[in-house]
Amino acid sequence: xxxxxxxxxxxxxxxxxxxxxxxxxxxxxxxxxxxxxxxxxxxxxxxxxxxxxxxxxxxxxxxxxxxxxxxxxxxxxxxxxxxxxxxxxxxxxxxxxxxxxxxxxxxxxxxxxxxxxxxxxxxxxxxxxxxxxxxxxxxxxxxxxxxxxxxxxxxxxxxxxxxxxx
Length: 166
Hints:
The chain is of the alpha+beta class. The chain is built from 5 helices and 7 strands; from the N terminus they run H-E-E-E-E-H-E-H-E-H-H-E.
């Protein structure tokens, strides 16, 4: 599997997973070597096997990355309609999820384009008090350089979905 060749499929799987559950999981390693998983709803992918997320509330995530920049970002499509259609057909109608592995860079100021993208994502819920409390004042991001991926797979219903299942 080659992340560059498969990027559009990988990107689509992550974006569909994030859209269905509102977040991706980002795994890091704590200072005591135990795993730490953080739900992050502000992950964005670019077209060049890179991405970024807004470093806003996740204090442990940032500390862990500063100590060890290796991460795994995972998203799984949790949509009920997706699962209903897939189970009804006896095969997945799209890849059910993906894990992306990479290295995260230091905190930097978000660009106007990045801020516009997050504001567009949270705008539909901005009329709610809790949404305004959680999803405002985004100013800083961390870049992620993805090196490889592993699809979320099941032993059946995956024929031809990913290169190793072709």
